[in-house]
Amino acid sequence: MTVHPSLQPSVDAWTQSIESISELVSSLVEGEWNRPTERVGWSVRDAVSHVIGGECEALGDPRPIHSLPRDLYHVTDETSRYHEVQVDVRRHHTGPEMTSELEYTIIRRSRHLRNERRNASDVISHPLHGKLPLGQYLQLRVADVWVHEQDLRRALKQPVTLDTPAALVARDVLLQRLPGVVAEQAPVKSAVVFDVSGPVEFLRTVRVDEQGNGSVDSSPSLGPVATFTLDWETFTRVVTGRLRGRRAAEKVKVEGERDLADRILAGLASPW
Where do the Mycothiol-dependent maleylpyruvate isomerase metal-binding domain residues begin and end (predicted)? Predict the structure, then answer.
């Protein structure tokens, strides 16, 4: 049995990225598992734990019954609390325990995807994302794995992989964050442009309509209230909360209303 053709691109992208993670961490010594990543509050071990946990939930495994410590400063809302359970429950696992669980999870999930009989439009339920099409959920998993793959690469001083199939899926998923953030800050009947260069190059306009709802498209705007010009890697780090505050402002060229631009950048600071 083969996966439905509508799902195959996402499955291929997921496979490439998660196997890259497995290769990255396969020979780490114990101290390297504790290196901090750009994801606030998470080490290399934590990022891998998050990936493992996400795939276990995709497999339908029950979530761990685990009480979080009260001193985790980076746990600030219910979403971060949800993600932290799968991370904290593995914080004392050794390197060999981590690599073994990751490899076994990849084997299980790969078999699960090969036997997938549903198509991209079939609706599933997820405790965090609610009801959504299976194809969209797989794209979220691809983007999540790819983002944390880059976290691991930067933490371990390895070259990032910015132009893989998973990167293209991540682009489409990350762009979906923009309308909500921009609409919270920009005035009605306005537009904000993101001009992104590099291995994944694009120009997108976020428009806020008369009701204050945001949407994104590829048509240029003649009079945007703000234009962000940045490279693809910086875009991914800003939109996932890896670059924040002054560090983000230093790497992003802004034309237009600076105060508005700063508020939008701040709104994008919530960690992925």
Answer: 15-153
